[in-house]
Amino acid sequence: MNSKIVPKIPLDQRDSKRTFVIVAAIFAVLIFSVYYLEISFIEMLMGIPSFVMFFFEKFLPPNTENLQQYIPAVIDTLGYAVISTYISTIIAFVFGILISENTNKFKTLRVITRGFVSVLRNIPFIIWGALLVYIFGIGGIVGVLALILVTIGFLSKSYAESIDEISGDKLEALRANGSSYFQILFHGVIPQFVPAWINWTLFAFEINVRASAVLGLVGAGGIGVLIDTNINLFKYGEAITIIAVIVMIILLTELVTNSIRKRFV
Amino acid sequence: SADTANKGWPEELTLVQMPNENNPNAASMHTALRDHLSKELGIEVKEFEGGSYAVGIEALASGNLDVMLASPMSYYQANQLAGAELLVTPQVEGYEYYTAFITKKDNKEINNMEDLKGKNFAFVNAASSSGYLYPKGTLVQEFNLDPDSVEQSGYFFENVTFSESHPNSVMGVMMGDFDAAAVAIGQLDSMIEAGTIKEDDFKIIGQTQNIPDASYIVRGDLPEDFKNALKDAFVSFEDEKYFEAVHNDPKARFIATEQDYYDPTIEMLDAINALEEEAK
Amino acid sequence: MEHIRVTSKGSVGKSILLVLILGAVFFAAVKLINLDMQKFYERLENVPVVLSRMMAVDFSIVPDALLNIVTSLALALLTLVVAVFLAMFLSFLAASNIAPNRYLAIFIKGFFAIIRSVPSLVWGLMVIASLGFGNVSGFVAILISAVGYLTKTFTASIEETGSEIIEAMKATGASWFKIIYHGLIPLCITAFVAWITVCFETNVSESIGLGIIGVGGIGLLLTQAINTYNYAQTTTIVIMICLLMVVLELVMTKMKNKIKFGNS
Amino acid sequence: MNPLLSIKNLVKVYGKDTRALNGITLDFYPGEFIVVIGPSGAGKSTFIRCINRLVNPSEGKIIFDGQHLEKLSGRKLRKERSKIGMIFQHYNLVGRTNVIKNVLHGQLSSTPLYKSLLGLYRHEDKQEAVELLKKVGLQDQIYKRADELSGGQMQRVGICRAILQRPKLLLADEPIASLDPLSANIVMQQLHTISLEKKLTCIVNLHQVDYAKKYATRIIGIKKGAVVFDGAPSRLTDAMIQEIYEGKESQMTLQGKSGMQLAVGQNDE
Amino acid sequence: MNPLLSIKNLVKVYGKDTRALNGITLDFYPGEFIVVIGPSGAGKSTFIRCINRLVNPSEGKIIFDGQHLEKLSGRKLRKERSKIGMIFQHYNLVGRTNVIKNVLHGQLSSTPLYKSLLGLYRHEDKQEAVELLKKVGLQDQIYKRADELSGGQMQRVGICRAILQRPKLLLADEPIASLDPLSANIVMQQLHTISLEKKLTCIVNLHQVDYAKKYATRIIGIKKGAVVFDGAPSRLTDAMIQEIYEGKESQMTLQGKSGMQLAVGQNDE
Ligand SMILES: Nc1ncnc2c1ncn2[C@@H]1O[C@H](COP(=O)(O)OP(=O)(O)OP(=O)(O)O)[C@@H](O)[C@H]1O
Ligand SMILES: Nc1ncnc2c1ncn2[C@@H]1O[C@H](COP(=O)(O)OP(=O)(O)OP(=O)(O)O)[C@@H](O)[C@H]1O
Ligand SMILES: [Mg+2]
Ligand SMILES: [Mg+2]
Known about the structure:
The complex is a heteropentamer, with 1 copy of chain A, 1 copy of chain B, 1 copy of chain C and 2 copies of chain D. Chain A is mainly α. Chain A has helices spanning about 15-35, 40-60, 65-100, 105-120, 125-135, 140-165, 170-175, 180-210, 210-215, 225-230, 235-265. Classes of the chains: A mainly alpha, B alpha/beta, C mainly alpha, D alpha/beta. At the A-C interface, α1, α2, α3, α4 and α5 of A face α1, α2, α3, α4 and α5 of C. Chain C: It is found in: Cell membrane.
């Protein structure tokens, strides 16, 4: 290079000042939060050993004596989870399509559905529980309804996000040959959506299996209530056994679904 | 301050309120009690709202919590696990806590406790004093039942449900999901007051013995003089607004609790084998 | 006339079998849970009664609620930021198309499956016993579930991107971390922002359920309103929460579109 | 004869200031085989995609078969689109769906939804699909998933799909870019024949001037969003070609030779 | 002279029974400009991708610069890969990132992590990136997002990225498929010159036999996963070309003429 001043080559044309302002604003909010909530990270790190110790001292060894007694609750839980996963998958799918910009061009309908799902998702469990019990009483139906309500909010949003991510390229071909909306949906969007769909549905099942709080709130029992009760009676060994059972169920379903997926889809 | 350090007192006190079946207002939103204790003891007082006795008791055991509001059963557990001691009890004149056995007003088949045999019945949950242990104890004593079989279908009840909350039990009865249930009287009163149910929707067909009030319990390993100072501080608290808001009675006060206050309860719990597991 | 299949022979049989299995599982479950649909229809009548009872608002709670919302938001935001960093790191270790080590990936996925399976009460217990009551505990408890959720969703998004970009970057000899930073993050960022939005909402609603470990905020206020059967206050608080969430969602969507369609 | 497609003053501006099309006016008649050539970035893809409204033009009129396409939407637009086949530069197949279904997508617009869902396409359609696939040498890949094919194989599936649509107008954006010379010739030959037999109008973007000259009945040169050449292949002189392609880019070969060489085939002549 | 790259008995089987490569043994020497031709689906892409292990070969040895690539992993593999540039058929750019950053990705492996995070590439690299972009006529698109470019523009960005890597071996999978003839010639010329000047070995998949003949120092014909031709361009006779490309597919032109026409350029001769 000769003595000429070397011109700088910027990597993008964005105003770096604005980026800086945004980053600074985020930092300010974070620092405010830490200060306002009086959170000390040192205290947190100091707590880690006792956190781990607590687990090993109290929860181990697991107590498997009453394993047989859990079976009815386990089966119940699975039943609830299966039904509500099925139903919410279908409903959430419709919502997901209505929310995604890729599949719903009507802005008003999109905004309305989005708002509706957002309300579903953001009304806390306890409120749903109370409402459902006041309306439907205690029993299986209420349990299923509670699970569905909770899952739909989450699933619809997740589906919509996944559909949004499906690239327009593939759909363009169908649009270009005059396919109707539903044909683009069924022949273009859905085949591409399948992997994400399986993923989310599995996750929904997982949520439904361990939705102790929801089922408990409406008096529908299930395995989660069993854990809470055992902990309230300080029977940690039994609680950890039941948790292990849940983990087992979830891992097993994932395994089965994955092998099915490999073979079928 | 200087003298707290000398006496080996803790530098701050953590107090946890628990939502309580009998007075749901027991809330931490009233800063009056906290301020009073802080002034009397000369140390900082932190007050939290708890949600689970198990969490509170573990916190007592690990020294992260000093004072907690506890029901008889929880006190027993706290005593076993964390060596907690009874401190003070809020005393409200003329108000008694018990659990009522209720059924629907128009249920012709159930008129007294005996009629519960062969019916569908709901407890709250297996860790609840007023929703399970007391009513079960009453049934066991009255009908001479085997405490370990009460929940089994076809033994005394046709079927037993755990509804997981008092309002759930009430609604289940009102809707006919089960024939009868055991519900804390305080909860019934609140629901009537709120208009959720009406006085003449249901009838009370029996009740348990009186359940001692929830009491504040304190970590046992604090210095004796500190515990005494704490007790005095509670007893000298006379803010009528606070008692009105929390206990619905401006004249209510805290009184010091004898260490044997809960003994009858604990005996009863022992009688239904509720304590065998924790006794170890 | 010879029949021409649209799907290969095997896959039709497989699809039928799959539908049969799925159907059988569903009906077995329905049988098991014993759903009384009759009761359900009868009780639908209660809907207007119960809803009308909730139809009341009490504005006196608003200032108090606003103050508490700040606490909830601050907590949710703080957790979110920490969780995003942790989850990003973990998810790139766990996503099968970029994971440096297959066994580590399986371990991470399994570990978080377990983490997510542990009920919040158990976390509450462990956190309180080690850290005591207060916001620190709330922070840790929300953090655990937020990291669990984000790791799961981030991993899924990364796995969906396919391998084209990864291949191109690999071919330049770029290291794992560089492939991620320069290739995958720009590619996945809109998906990430979407999950972060959902996670933020979950955090806020989770902080509502955290009364159990003594965290203040809007949740505490709400629980008290419910426990005292104060319908007007309950409704008011719920409306405020929903409004807050809708505003948040709008802001986040704006942000997402900006990233998606804006300049590099 | 009336034009099948009339384009009047077509303008497309991307974002604020990328003027990809700068006022294009053209008429296309039935049975014409038009090849559009032009340097990279000239606006060829944009032009083709404006015709069936995959890209919405900023200004101008597109009159196809008597209809003002730029004004249509919904069902009507779909109906017109079903008469316009399209072959994409990047194939745009549904990756997780198998080959024959991808081809049958060409008949979607004339198949009722429930039938298409159950795979109940008309027998003739299925037969034609299989025959088309055979013709392009994919008879062994009929049930393979589209994303397992090689580049050239995918392109051929896309071509079959467009032909199965039995369109009046066929748009193709670099249909032979990823094909080997033999396949490329077969494909061009096939498009050409169909165009002749069925009086089908084809508009094809190509980079290969030699192919353009061989198959086109009319060549259009686009440069910087404007038409710079429009006429019979025989009128496309070497000087003309040079003018079409020459631009800033040609001054920049490494060795400082200006880019006077064009398609190798022509240099060899 | 020692070969830069030695391939011994390379086999690749996809899934259970798609034998894409069927035992390929070849040596490549510094400064060679090799063009690989073959019908669609022959295994050309697979072959090229096996060399830098983007596809893991099922069997065989790949010895590059004295290293057994098939045995390497982790840092060592990365180090060898950074000496091998690659140009992709589908460009594989990071769509949301701008053009210059995409090009600079070529220097990632030699930029310390923290610097690359902050975008602090060496000034020479940035300058070279800009110059390369200018050479291929993209000086106006430097800050455009990669997904806003036309097909040919994207391809040119991909080429700049590979060259910026300053590799010893350059792999290219149909680098000029989407380029207009002028750009195509410029690009081939450029690759050719670099190959000569820097003794860089290039292995390029092409469909255009004419380009192959013009630029290659050696042509390799692949068919059904095996090498059917290997020699100087002059030795590639028309009969040979016909044999390479001829297969089932050639019997199937619409009119029943067998596919005897090859690249148009040659027919014209
Ligand atoms: N991921 C894959 N899974 C299964 N089969 C594959 C995969 N990739 C390629 N194949 C198959 O391997 C064979 C060779 O493919 P390859 O992509 O190497 O061909 P190619 O010579 O590059 O063709 P083209 O010129 O069309 O790009 C083809 O039959 C193709 O269908
Ligand atoms: N989505 C878009 N957003 C912004 N600019 C775009 C977009 N698509 C294309 N362009 C720009 O419009 C111009 C014309 O692009 P177009 O794709 O029509 O070119 P082309 O003639 O098809 O080129 P090629 O032969 O390389 O495919 C280019 O400068 C391109 O950068
Ligand atoms: Mg183009
Ligand atoms: Mg290929």
